[in-house]
Every structure is written in C-alpha cells, then in structure tokens.
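The records we work with from here on pair a chain with its fold. A complete example follows; check for yourself that the lines match position by position.
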Amino acid sequence: CVPISLSLSRSLSLFFAMTFHTVGDITPSCGISKEEKRRREHETMEYLKSLLTQANHVKAGEDLLALWLEYDNGATPSAKFLKSLDRFEMLLQAYEYEQEEGNPHFLQEFFDTAAPKIDHESVAAWTRQLQAFRKHE
C-alpha cells in the first residue's frame, strides 16, 4: 500500500470542497461534459488564486493552484486516494437515495460510471463490498 500524506490530503480536500461549493454538484445526469466541469473548476481555482495575489499572497495563490492541479490530474498517491474517495462517496449517496426512494438500482448509472474509475486499492475494495451489498437487495 502506498503511503498517503495526511497534511496533503487535508489541503487537497479543502480545495476540492472550495470548487464543489462554487461549481456545484455536477452529476452525469446534468448533461455537462467532463471538459466543461473541469473548465469551471479550474476557473474557480484561478479566481481564488487571483484573490490571494491581490492580497499580496502570490506564493499562496500559486501553491493553491498547484495543489488543485495535483488533485485534478491525480498526480500523487494522496490525490488518487482523494479522487477515489470522492467517487466512493458519490456511490454511497446514490445508494442512500435508492433506499430513501424504495427503488433499488435506479441510480445504476452512477455505479456504472464511477466504480470503474476508483483506482485506490482500499477504496476499490469498499466499492466492491457496496456493490455486493446492493446486489442482494
């Protein structure tokens, strides 16, 4: 198992939350392309960088953008872990919605698109467990 940097993971999580808050929860059913989603997220990080630069925190702005790109590109084990964790969290939400609606498997498209992209070993194992659990319902 590749070691994960806790401090880097915290920073990456925070920046991911900032873009999520600004861009919104874009799901496959929104009809927004992957490229457009990435463009919006990158634009958000550029905006946050500009705010830091205006406040004379140029280095912090550059670091912010570099961390975001690290996450977005899955460039480190920590970034890959967080991307996998984000996808797994989406699957858990989909499962909870299916339970609330009493309609098993109606959000299968989330599982079909997200599960194959989960590439962190531990998170992939959790995903397989969730899928096995869903199969028996």
Remarks:
- The chain has a mean pLDDT of 87.
